Amino acid sequence: MGKDLRQFLQAARAAGPEFYVESKKPLKPKLEPFILQQKLLKEGRYPVIYCPEIEGSRIPLVTGLVGSYELLGLAMGMDPRKMDKFEISREFTSRKMTAGTRPVKQIPAAQAPVREVILKGNDVDLNLLPITQHHERDSGRYVAAGFLICKNPDTGVPNAGIYRHEVKGKDIIGCDLAPAHNAAFIAGRYAALGKPMEVAIVIGHHPAVVLACGSEGPVGMNELEVAGGLLGEQLEVVDAETVDLQVPARAEIVIEGVIDRPIDGTGTDGPFGEYTWYYGEVAPCFLMRVTAITMRRDAIYHDLDPAHPEHNLAGALGWEASAFEAVKKVLPGVKAVHVPISGVSYHVYVSIKKRVPGEGKIAGIAAIAGHPRTTMVVVVDEDVDVFNEREVMWAIATRTVADRDVSIISNTTGQRLNPSAHDETRLKRGYMVSKMIIDATMPVDLPFSTRITPNKELWQSMRLEDYLKK
Ligand SMILES: Cc1cc2nc3c(=O)[nH]c(=O)nc-3n(C[C@H](O)[C@H](O)[C@H](O)COP(=O)(O)O)c2cc1C
Ligand SMILES: [Mn+2]
Which residue's alpha carbon is nearest to atom 22 within ligand 1? Predict the structure, then answer.
């Protein structure tokens, strides 16, 4: 019971130096932790990085929590040594669905670690936290791995999502709630009702909770209940101090506050280095007036490098789950869905057991519906491992006839941060992209060449160590 960030850090540390490293020197909050993270990435290493000392704050920082599939598996409580991407993805999908969700468990404030320190009124000061600048051309310092909780005013159902938050002053912080996301829809409802929106930004929890908040779903999906499903236990919550919301009791830090106004041009954020590995441009954002900061006495600050694979990995399992469910509705024989890092969340690989001609394209259409930011879907047969990019490219090379199997849907909604997204004139930047389906499945109604696979009996009986000289 009571899974939290600390419990995960212990597990990562116990798994060894591939999974967990510590900085032995103090670091400046401007850029330095992420230079370390990028240097490790260049060496093909993606450990959790614990930084005990960040200049200007007494709070330690941790980054890289979900920098690899192995860490995602660890977050799901699986054995990191026997990691199979397909298994992790399947496990996440089944735990995220309604059948896996768990209601939250309310505990009294006196038992909630996140309420050990309470700062209100004049004591509120965001500068107490080691909030970093991640990239050279970023407009400033951003909370990058926090999730924001609000409540739908019509239904009372909580919503939680990860959004970037730029520090604007000691008690003012930006909230980049993209228009297509549920939090922005909820903000619109408050604006329509003429009411301020109470919110809480949560920083630092078990990564399964963070993954739940990064995962997409309809308005009405309660991410705190999804978090319980992924954790395998009810998420403990406590009443917030100054707003009418429940917040995770075992979080490290909570920033409570109010969004008083709709987006009216008063606030902007950006440029900010993003998951596309490009800078995103200046954009309008909401502004939040901070009413309280509550935290653990020995709080740890969770950060993330937005231009590192960990950003997309924080969303990947959720996108795979949404696309999988959408394809499954029309094609019960769907085997696996992968949203690869190389496609910065815009590419989806789907494997299916094809029954009749044309199903490859149907699977592609469904995957786009399930994961709307997609710009390319590749659909392959079930013998192709979608988690192995070389196999996917091989299927395209050997099973695709371009003018028969490639379909393009022009001028559909994509992601604002996609550097190729344009407006209707195609002359200015906007939300529009074109989507491509590559059906790389074999025809079912024609003979096709036979794939070479090793002889099964010999594969099982011949062990490398028995044959190769040491
Ligand atoms: C690390 C990370 C950072 C993100 N940053 C933003 C952001 O700045 N703005 C945004 O609208 N979505 C951002 N997202 C995506 C949302 O968290 C995600 O789409 C979520 O499902 C939105 O939830 P909602 O529809 O309930 O609002 C981010 C996701 C991750 C994993
Ligand atoms: Mn939501």
Answer: 161
